[in-house]
């Protein structure tokens, strides 16, 4: 699949907009470009229920598709999941229930400072 015509900043703005449109809570954006080549930004959002988590992820996909970007993947699809991941090339969106977000604490994981050798 070819690279999208949208910049990482544009993809990020569209993803956040899609989450806000369906009442995503505690939306956090992490710039991880200095830590990995896999993506530039990670977005973490909380949904109020498993159904809401799924709906948030689905809305991100639909919003980006309507703006010309075909997502690379969507994991955790279905109403029974407490975590969905949407891969938008340079932006990865994680939508989780409050419990899953507290348990996995992705913000803390990506806050690790590299050690000097």
From TrEMBL:
This is Ribosomal silencing factor RsfS. Coiled coil: none annotated. Pfam families: RsfS. Signal peptide: none annotated. InterPro entries: Iojap/RsfS/C7orf30, NT_sf. It is found in: Cytoplasm. Keywords: Cytoplasm, Repressor, Translation regulation. Interacts with ribosomal protein uL14 (rplN). It comes from the Bacteria. Belongs to the Iojap/RsfS family. Functions as a ribosomal silencing factor. Interacts with ribosomal protein uL14 (rplN), blocking formation of intersubunit bridge B8. Prevents association of the 30S and 50S ribosomal subunits and the formation of functional ribosomes, thus repressing translation. PANTHER family: IOJAP SUPERFAMILY ORTHOLOG, MITOCHONDRIAL ASSEMBLY OF RIBOSOMAL LARGE SUBUNIT PROTEIN 1.
């Amino acid at each position: 699949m070819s690279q999208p015509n949208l910049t990482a900043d544009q993809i990020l703005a569209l993803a956040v907009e899609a989450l806000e449109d369906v009442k995503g809570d505690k939306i956090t954006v992490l710039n991880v470009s200095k830590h990995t080549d896999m993506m530039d930004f990670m977005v973490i959002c909380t949904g109020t229920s498993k159904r809401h988590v799924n709906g948030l992820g689905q809305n991100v996909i639909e919003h980006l598709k309507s703006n010309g970007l075909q997502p690379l993947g969507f994991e955790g699809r279905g109403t029974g999941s407490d975590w969905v991941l949407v891969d938008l090339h340079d932006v990865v969106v994680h939508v989780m229930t409050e419990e899953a977000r507290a348990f996995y604490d992705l913000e803390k994981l990506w806050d690790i400072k590299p050690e000097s050798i």
